[in-house]
Amino acid sequence: MFSPFERMMSWRYLRARKKEGFVSVIAAFSFLGIMLGVATLIIVMSVMNGFRAELVDRILGLNGHLNVYSETGTLNNYMSVVDRLEKIKGVESVRPMIEGQVLISVNGAANGALVRGLSREDFATKPLLSESITAGQLSNFGGQNVAIGIKLAERMNLSVGSDLTLLAPKGKATPFGTVPRSASYKVGVIFDVGMYEYNSGFIFMDLTSAQKFFQLRNAVNSVEVMTKNITVADEIKGEIIIAMDGYAGVYDWRDANSSFLNALAVERNVMFLILTLIIIVAAFNIISSMIMLVKDKGKDIAIMRTMGATQKNVMKIFVLTGASIGLVGTFAGALLGTLFALNIETIRQFLEGISNTELFAAEIYFLSQLPAVVSWDEVLTVVLMALVLSIGATIYPAWRASRLDPVEALRYE
Q1: Contact present, 315 and 1 (Cβ < 8 Å)
Q2: How far apart are CA 334 and CA 327, in angstroms?
Q3: Are 32 and 345 in contact (CB under 8 A)?
Q4: Less Cβ around it within 10 Å: N or C end of the chain?
């Protein structure tokens, strides 16, 4: 594609010389701009991918792929619903469940939380929960013993064996008015699922105890459905709707967490567009450096033309010169960005250690660790985009060089 003569001239123009120092400085900044733009884009997109993957994994680890609920608030004959759901092809497990808001009271301090009632067997079959126990044992869960998140335990100064009082939002009517309904429980398990929302605001309780506390007797208010493959959840959702025949409603995990997923998608797209501008600015730097190089090398171009070089040869020399800056900068940026993304948690801890500041607050970002998932398809897309912009930036200056009139260039020499 490029002759030895064209490669030789291109390499000579890339080397720094004293009288061409300013041009070389601009070319160096163009290289750094391309490198940093590509690296930043890869790092940010990897972090956004990591956020989505971590959030989805934790959401699905603690919630069902699908949920069946009664529009009246309770499912009285829920075992028949469970039987019907278990017969649907593709359904892996069905868990009756109770959810309700409560107020926690400990030594005069109060805090809101969401109680989720499920059996010990169902608690054990959720790996994200059963494998995240930091204090207590799974056998402690049940009866008057509840499981709470580590952040909630720290905030309320609770440990295994501590007492806490739960107040239900619906009280009981008395001749003196409505009295808040309350019950005392012990902390049997403390868990850390790595997601601030669950660690700070969830309490898991045995299903029988939850039925008693919320006065649902032999009823529940939702049934959680796990499918064998999340990709077929939409098909199974349709079959569940048919099976329920209007008796209960159905929503999936995306409906329940649409605000999270939409916010991530919008932020990801906006960040991609904004950071792409860095690469575009670096491409403009290539244009300016190449225009200055063409102006500086006018005499050289005229001499090459008089010695037999064609317009095509000249154009290819300057395209190769500019493209080399973009090519090296792009691949250096891709390498830097990939290595940074793969080791981002270690880098974060190092920076926090030397600066003594918290760079990634769990209560703000919902996760306890900074995640990053490198998508090689996205890396390839970023690399190709940077290469196209870099090569495109050389076309006009190279065309100007090829159109230079040798007579005019040498007239006053």
Answers
A1: no
A2: 11
A3: no
A4: N
